Structure prediction request, 325 residues.
Amino acid sequence: MEVPSEVNRIAWLIKTMRVRGAARIARAAAYAMKVAALSYKGGSLGDYISYMKSNASVLTSTRPSAVSLHNAVRYVMNRVLRAQSVEEGVKSAVQAADNFISMSLSSVKIISEYGSRLIEDGDTILTHCNSSLALSIIKAAHKGGKKLKVYATETRPRFQGLITYNDLINAGVPTILIPDSAVRYFMKDVDKVIVGADTVAANGAVVNKVGTSLIALAAHEARVRFYVAAETYKFSPATVLGELVEIEERGPEEVLLSNYISIAKSFKVRNPAFDVTPPEYIDAIITERGILPPKAASMILLEDYGVEISEELNKITLDVDESLP
Ligand code: RUB
Prediction:
């Protein structure tokens, strides 16, 4: 059976960034897996499983750097693979998708609560791009009566900073939009930087919107605290085994201003959507399981994926030289 049009539509929404931000992408993918399961008609358990795998790969191919998306799909698929019948497989996919979505939403609430405790009355905060987790913390602190000021970076080339600006202004948080290149200029006025994450690697490095690592560097230089807000399903199990996170590169048309589009072909352009901030520049990762030092990422990953990781390790065969003593 073919991938249903609704699943293809959701994949298209994610790919074209109409649905964006790692948490929303993950919930949309979990929902799409539920749609896929409910749309399945007839066939054997084997057919159902390969059909679900096709749906999973359509979804995961949309945005490679957001491990949240891959983990959401894996969460549903792991349960599908354990089913003994099609009926059970459909039921467990629906249940797993619903569980993932409610777990994701409750993580946002917990993180906003933990994170808002780190913010003090009178703080000036800088945020980059548009992270629903970072914004939930800022809005919770504001709601709790703390007086804040926020610098929101523009976030070229897609200008997600404008979404952040509007969201915070609508919530009543005094916010100033600044060009990305002005971050170091304003850093002396900033008390804390709070950003989101697409992926957290086993060594505590964070993959987030391109420019994040430059901001971390400027914060480090100015001795300003740098926090990352991320649910633990953004932690990448593959990185425990040394795999690197693929950085998504998008088209040149996003970088060139509209008046250059006509001569765009003569420009050589690179447009990475994300970059990697090393753990040394991160003070803490605010998760639903507590406020963690970045180096604790590997512990969380072993807790959640220990069995799968050791199975993978067992597959590695060493070429041993028998003649050695
Ligand atoms: C969005 C981005 C966000 C993270 C975290 O990039 O980098 O900071 O996804 O978002 P894009 P959230 O606009 O390319 O998707 O905290 O909402 O999960």
In short: The beta strands are 124-127, 149-153, 175-178, 192-195, 199-200, 206-209, 225-229, 274-277, 284-287, 290-292. Residues 17, 20-23, 129, 131-133, 160, 196-198, 208-209, 273 surround ribulose-1,5-diphosphate (CB under 6 Å).
